[in-house]
């Protein structure tokens, strides 16, 4: 990445600008703007997050926000209430209070003497979600958003449920937020006599969100609120949507470009869950330059040409050898002037010829361990590995070796006719690229709770032995399968630890299966290009402890229990400007017996540390999840230490009835 230190306008920074909400709650903002913005007002750009601007997102903030400010913007990074250096309490993600706070910040910014009255909003993941949700509320000053790695559907395409299946990331993310929000404000900003009171109040009211999310196992009003797919027309601001093929949120770009009536463009690269100017696998792109073109057009009224950009720009990845991490993905950029594209045709492939006996799908419960993380973000061993171990536990439909290469671009689908011997059963479908030597690389996958085959809002129990029709939609993908390789469609009824298992071992009789494959004419090379990545001066830090990620799968040969253990030590660094050192470590353990879905369990343990000049705090958060045939049982614990003194502890456990999950 090229570091830019000279900008058209000189930048000043305010590390703790207070923004007081109508109810008196003070939000803390880190703001960068041109030094002369008071004399020559500029548009504002808002990023509104719970992830702590002082020590959480500071790495990416430092690259991004000063860059925008140097090009004539007031760039505002706000800690949401109840997090970081802001007052108040947070009770859930994407609450009405959170969205109203963002609207109030937008109105506040537009009214400042240094602002020209136009505001943009941006973010990745949480910030990508809430900028779309805020846009749907139509605050008058909000003219444009840039949403990265986000979703339009909080139920069907987030970390909670997928295809009506309970994602295990639901529990993992609840554990993560329990840890993230357990940290105190910085005493240098909150004050020596005030930070502790704010912290203890925050801890006493800190929710563990898993029980709440489990109480909404179907697509009810809880999930509809904040899902902009309920009314795409509510979004009037111009939308630039960006995502990556190695991220869990790869479908949103297509959904937005297809459905938004306001000006909208989409970009999908080969990336994990990161901003695309420093993301991997490479190639990264000049995201900040791309963003400036968007902001300049919609916030300054400059004709930058972005309206003439192709509707959908995507990276078609070349086939590679399976690996848990790819530092780069060879391929090419393609462009579609409209999306859905008339150039993309669907190839229909019958997987079970007429008259054949049904395929029996009865996978061991540990099928899925080669699947990787739902949204990788550590630049480590989190990608899908060689699929052959999971293929061996699935029913596989191998196609003939390709005589010529094909480019897949879009969302493959598999239409099935299936009968289950249980009232509830899941089905998982993987599309794989099989190399001539047998290595199997995951292209895309989809899962479906068969009781949700007709509706996520009103599931219908299966009648054992009765054949039903279902449609399994796989995630969007951009992938070239070379000549000599084979397509494999692998079908299982377990996908651990991506989804929580059915309460009973099930057997599926698959009597018909049809693959619907979206194929684009073979690209001859790059059809569009991006400038190379740029960024402002990086965050200046001292490494106290280096980062390290480990992942182990073990099978107890005596008991048969299979255990996946993950340790992500994110290291510890000290900020060279304000001296705060922060460190964190996450540990996860997932266990299951291949023959017993009720043996499934998950455990997490997070450690967070903050220190400066003899002052130190530490939080330890842990959680556990298990189930029986009727209930989920989740528990959580928080411990908080000032120095080595325990100042807060709390335990909780809750039992939630299962409902066709």
Automatic annotation (TrEMBL):
Where does this protein have coiled-coil stretches? none
Mind telling me which InterPro entries this protein's record contains?
AB_hydrolase_fold, CocE/Ser_esterase, Galactose-bd-like_sf, Xaa-Pro-like_dom, Xaa-Pro_dipept_C, Xaa-Pro_dipeptidyl-ppase/CocE
Classification via SMART domains: PepX_C (SM00939)
Looking up Pfam families in the UniProt record yields: Peptidase_S15, PepX_C
Where is each Xaa-Pro dipeptidyl-peptidase C-terminal domain found? 292-539
Q: What is this protein called?
A: Peptidase S15
Specify the superkingdom: Bacteria
Molecular function terms, GO-annotated: dipeptidyl-peptidase activity
Any idea which UniProt keywords this protein has? Hydrolase
């Amino acid at each position: 990445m090229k570091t830019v230190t000279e900008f058209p306008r000189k930048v000043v920074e305010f590390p703790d600008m207070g923004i007081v909400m109508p109810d008196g709650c003070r939000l803390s903002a880190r703001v960068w703007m041109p030094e002369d913005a008071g004399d020559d007002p500029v548009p504002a750009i808002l990023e509104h997050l719970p992830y702590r601007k002082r020590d959480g997102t500071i790495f990416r903030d430092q690259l991004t926000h000063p860059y925008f400010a140097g090009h004539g913007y007031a760039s505002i990074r706000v800690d949401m209430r109840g997090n970081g250096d802001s007052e108040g309490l947070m009770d859930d993600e994407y609450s009405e209070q959170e969205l109203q706070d963002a609207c109030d910040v937008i109105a506040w910014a537009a009214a400042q003497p240094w602002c020209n009255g136009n505001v943009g909003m941006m973010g990745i993941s949480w910030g990508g979600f809430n900028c779309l949700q805020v846009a749907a509320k139509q605050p008058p000053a909000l003219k444009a958003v840039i949403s990265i790695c986000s979703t339009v559907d909080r139920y069907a395409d987030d970390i909670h449920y997928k295809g009506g299946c309970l994602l295990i990331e639901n529990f993992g993310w609840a554990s993560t937020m329990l840890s993230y929000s357990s940290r105190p404000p910085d005493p240098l900003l909150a004050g020596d006599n005030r930070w502790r009171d704010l912290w203890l109040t925050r801890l006493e009211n800190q929710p563990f969100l898993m029980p709440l999310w489990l109480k909404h196992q179907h697509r009810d009003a809880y999930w509809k609120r904040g899902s902009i797919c309920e009314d795409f027309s509510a979004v009037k601001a111009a939308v630039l949507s960006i995502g990556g093929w190695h991220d869990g949120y790869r479908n949103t770009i297509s959904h937005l470009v297809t459905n938004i009536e306001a000006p909208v463009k989409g970009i999908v690269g080969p990336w994990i869950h990161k901003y695309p100017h420093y993301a991997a696998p490479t190639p990264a792109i000049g995201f900040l330059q791309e963003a400036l073109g968007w902001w300049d057009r919609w916030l300054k009224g400059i004709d930058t040409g972005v309206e003439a950009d192709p509707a959908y720009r995507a990276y078609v990845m070349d086939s590679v050898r399976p690996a848990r991490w790819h530092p780069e993905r060879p391929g090419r950029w393609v462009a579609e002037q409209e999306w859905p594209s008339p150039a993309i045709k669907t190839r229909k492939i019958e997987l079970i010829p007429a008259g054949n006996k049904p395929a029996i799908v009865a996978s061991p419960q540990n099928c899925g361990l080669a699947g990787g993380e739902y949204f990788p973000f550590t630049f480590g061993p989190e990608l899908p590995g060689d699929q052959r171990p999971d293929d061996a536990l699935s029913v596989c439909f191998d196609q003939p070796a390709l005589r010529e290469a094909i480019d897949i671009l879009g969302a493959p689908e598999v239409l099935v006719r299936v009968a289950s011997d249980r009232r509830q059963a899941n089905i998982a479908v993987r599309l794989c690229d099989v190399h001539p030597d047998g290595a199997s690389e995951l292209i895309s996958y989809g899962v479906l709770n068969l009781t949700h085959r007709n509706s996520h809002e009103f599931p219908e129990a299966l009648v054992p032995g009765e054949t039903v029709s279902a449609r399994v939609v796989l995630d969007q993908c951009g992938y070239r399968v070379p000549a000599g390789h084979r397509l494999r469609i692998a079908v299982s009824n377990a996908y651990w630890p991506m989804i929580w298992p059915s309460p009973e071992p099930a057997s599926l009789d698959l009597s018909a299966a049809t693959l619907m494959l979206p194929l684009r004419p073979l690209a001859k090379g790059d059809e569009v290009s991006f400038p190379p990545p740029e960024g402002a001066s990086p965050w200046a830090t001292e490494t106290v402890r280096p980062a390290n990620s480990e992942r182990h799968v073990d099978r107890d040969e005596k008991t048969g229990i299979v255990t996946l253990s993950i340790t992500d030590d994110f290291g510890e660094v000290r900020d060279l400007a304000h001296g705060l050192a922060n460190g964190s470590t996450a540990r996860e353990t997932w266990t299951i017996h291949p023959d017993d879905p009720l043996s499934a369990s998950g455990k997490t343990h997070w450690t967070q540390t903050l220190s400066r000049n003899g002052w130190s705090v530490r939080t330890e958060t842990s959680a556990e999840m298990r189930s029986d045939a009727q209930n989920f049982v989740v528990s959580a614990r928080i411990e908080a230490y000032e120095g080595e003194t325990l100042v807060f502890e709390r335990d909780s456990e809750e039992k939630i009835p299962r409902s066709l999950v």
